[in-house]
Design a protein that fits this description.
762 residues; alpha+beta; four-stranded antiparallel β-sheet
């Protein structure tokens, strides 16, 4: 049997453009509110959507599956359009091959695909909300009430889930031919808007609709898929309102300047952008996993629903705040999107039900871990290869001995670095011309993930290696790169100074070119602070070579400084997280002429390129650290008790665990998104910044949440009797503060997102 090729990302973007264009012409935003209350207008649109092939989505998997359906739902959300394409898509996915077109139900599905029938959907007791109603079945007739049914006034048929032996069955009710009095409905306005109905059934005749799913699985499948569709529609509405707010911030002037130049507005909009990105990527990933046949797709869908329920409503509120009073009028477009977001994310039990699904997975069965990230064929295979190597080379006595060390001492192992150096994997992403393996971004993520899951120490100097490969001389590359590749050298970063932290353009450490009895060279004088890897063989140092250059970031150069060079003084201090950093003083430190990396006075380009390289993967590395600790925490919670009661059964614990699982999944999807951009030849700094901001603050949230669940015992440090996970949780909380400060504070990253990603004025 030949499996048809699934549509590509490019196909989905073409679909998105086509749907947006069609709705813009036939469901214009200035008419959307009034049109939604006109059944005739909706029926007319339905026929047009059918002519575009949208009512047939899911019937032929080679032309579209759940991913394509989510694209359409996002666009319906943007357009404030209530067309019941979700029902059409779900019925096509679950029943298109089950009922021949010659049968009554099969003919109705075919008529739907052709636009002659319009079927709406009610899940009843499978909806996940007790107010959704339920029906009772007597033979081929049903009675009862169903709530939250959309667009029934424009429909020809009602599809409904019936209670059946061992689960559910799917049936169709022909509204036109139903006996008088057997079907009625009335509008149930919600949140100041129309579109929902409550349907009463009194011995109404139905026809069963065959599906390939077993009765025990049908209800859960319909709920999981419908929930994803509603998340996508809410996402589209939230994104549209946000786009309007960003455009408004660029134009609206107060106090003589565009409000988008105010830091408070920039950071508010940056936060909304990060929220929307996380929900969007997580929902799309769940749909992708369904289309690929992954068993865990409902778990990913639950993560998307939990995120949407937690954050889309808040994002919608913040978007309204950005509009101020102008967005409070019903004449403005924003209020309709506010309503749609709130209505859709509360469907199917909302975040509460999604949290419980996630908690049940991670707490109710031992040995559960996060489903592996799909890194593609090459990435998945390489991850397995690295895991096998670690099982042999980072286990037993070597690992046990290392774990007896303090957190500070466990950061680096020269013995492990040398062992890893023999594999060539330190240079797995390097070009082959420099001795590397030329592997892609997803294989690099696979490597990082495998090391984090094994709690292995770091090795190599990826930022410095990338800098040397781009800006180094052939002599520097030949001398320095092999040392890094073999695991023999590690580098610190000499960037920050007492008056130049996030504002690196203000650095004052001087590098003067000299010519004396020793020949030509450089003389370094100045101070660097907060230097963490001060104990490495080399320091990558930023120094000012032209003090009069303008603008300020001009006149900076980069140097490779051996740390055994005379004139260097290191004064260490202990960090909040139990490690150490140093003040490093450079007093007449003499360097050879070839210590310069890149061109003189062009160091800003070298420096920012290195930071972009680090930020591109730093978010993923942080998320993987959190993911590892989350799994260990769940294992602990499964057996922990408070006053004889299992912690894993505490409703608060379950809600918090579900929320963390969803947030970690969003962080993983941002990580994969950045890797995909890098694989495509892009290094967008605002995407890396979004990942870094989200993951660093996720680590903080994880630590604080874990302490809420563990109580005072969670604060016990390593070596203390009764310390949970050997003090890992409290130490990671202390460490988390560094990740929101280092490599550019999160406040600076938010400004970068606003100005470069959202094009707000500086």
């Amino acid at each position: 049997m030949t499996v048809p090729a699934l549509p590509t990302d490019e196909d989905r973007e073409l679909l998105r453009d086509a749907v947006r264009g069609y709705l813009g012409q036939h469901w214009p935003t200035d008419q959307a509110v009034a049109a939604a209350t006109d059944p005739a207008r909706l029926r007319s649109l339905w026929q047009g959507l059918a002519a575009q092939g949208l009512t047939a989505l899911g019937a032929d998997r080679s032309e579209g599956g759940l991913q394509e359906l989510l694209v359409v739902m996002e666009e319906l959300g943007r357009a404030a359009c209530p067309a019941p394409l979700l029902a059409a898509g779900l019925l096509n996915l679950v029943a298109s091959n089950g009922a021949p077109a010659t049968t009554g139900t099969g003919a109705a599905l075919q008529a739907q695909r052709e636009g002659r029938a319009c079927i709406v959907l009610a899940l009843g007791d499978a909806e996940g909300d007790p107010a959704a109603g339920r029906v009772r079945v007597e033979g081929d007739h049903v009675s009862g009430e169903l709530g939250f049914v959309e667009a029934v006034d424009a429909a020809t048929h009602l599809a409904l889930l019936l209670p059946a032996e061992g689960g559910h069955a799917l049936a169709l009710l022909d509204l036109a031919s139903a006996p008088v009095g057997s079907v009625s409905w009335h509008a149930t306005p919600a949140l100041g808007g129309a579109g929902l109905f409550r349907v009463q059934l009194a011995n109404a005749p139905v026809q069963r609709l065959p599906t390939p799913l077993a009765a025990a699985d049908l209800g859960a499948w319909m709920r999981a898929a419908a929930r994803l569709g509603h998340v996508a529609r809410a996402m589209g509405a939230a994104q549209r309102a946000f786009d309007l707010a960003v455009a408004y911030a660029r134009e609206r002037r107060q106090f003589g300047q565009a409000i988008g130049s105010f830091q408070a507005i920039q950071h508010k909009l940056a936060d909304i952008h990060i929220t929307l990105l996380g929900v969007q990527l997580t929902a799309r990933h769940a749909a992708q996993q369904y289309d690929r046949g992954a068993e865990a797709w409902p778990l990913f869908g639950a993560a998307a629903a939990a995120l949407a329920g937690e954050s889309l409503r808040q994002a919608s509120l913040q978007t309204q705040h950005a509009f101020g009073a102008i967005g409070y009028s019903e004449e403005h477009e924003a209020p309709r999107h506010f309503k749609r977001v709130h209505l859709d994310v509360l469907r199917h039990g909302g975040a509460r039900a999604a949290h419980e699904e996630l908690a049940a997975y991670y707490l109710d069965s031992p040995g559960r871990t996060l489903p592996p990230s799909d890194l593609g064929a090459a990435g998945n295979a390489f991850r397995a290869e690295v895991q096998a190597w670690l099982a042999q080379h980072w286990s037993g006595e070597r690992q046990a001995t290392h774990e007896q060390l303090s957190f500070k001492e466990r950061e680096y192992s020269r013995d492990f670095a040398l062992a890893l150096g023999r594999t060539g994997w330190i240079g797995l992403g390097w070009p082959r011309e420099f001795g590397g393996q030329g592997r892609g971004a997803f294989e690099q993520l696979a490597f990082i993930e495998a090391l984090e899951r094994a709690d292995a120490p770091r090795a190599g100097a990826p930022v410095q290696a990338a800098m040397l490969q781009v800006h180094g001389t052939p002599q520097q590359q030949a001398r320095l790169l092999p040392e890094i590749l073999r695991g023999e050298a590690i580098y610190g970063m000499g960037y920050s100074e007492p008056d130049a932290g996030s504002d690196l353009a203000a650095l004052r450490t001087r590098a003067e070119r000299v010519h004396d009895e020793q020949g030509e060279g450089w003389l370094i004088n100045g101070q660097k602070i907060w230097t963490t890897t001060y104990w490495g063989e080399y320091m990558l140092l930023a120094a000012r070579t032209d003090p009069d250059a303008r603008p300020r970031h001009a006149g900076i150069s980069m140097f490779i400084v051996p740390m055994n060079t005379p004139g260097i003084t290191v004064r260490t201090s202990e960090t909040l997280y139990g490690g150490s950093f140093a003040n490093v003083f450079y007093d007449n430190v003499r360097l050879p002429l070839d210590a310069l990396v890149g061109r003189e006075n062009q160091g800003w380009k070298v420096l920012t390129g290195a930071l972009a390289t680090e930020r591109g993967f730093i978010g993923g590395g942080i998320v993987m650290k959190v993911a590892r600790s989350f799994e260990l925490l769940c294992t602990h919670l499964q057996t922990a008790e408070v006053q004889g009661r299992p912690l894993a059964q505490d409703p608060l614990v379950r809600q918090r665990v579900g929320a963390l699982a969803a947030q970690i999944e969003a962080g993983r999807q941002m990580m994969l998104y950045c890797a995909a951009r890098v694989s495509g030849g892009e290094t967008p700094p605002h995407d890396a910044a979004a990942s870094k901001v989200y993951s660093g603050e996720l680590m903080e949230r994880f630590g604080e949440t874990a302490l809420d669940l563990l109580g005072l015992q969670g604060l016990l440090m390593e070596g203390s009797p009764g310390a949970v996970l050997k003090g890992r949780i409290e130490q990671q909380l202390r460490h988390s503060l560094m990740w929101v400060i280092s490599i550019g504070t999160n406040e600076i990253q938010r400004s970068l997102i606003a100005q470069r990603g959202l094009d707000l004025p500086r």
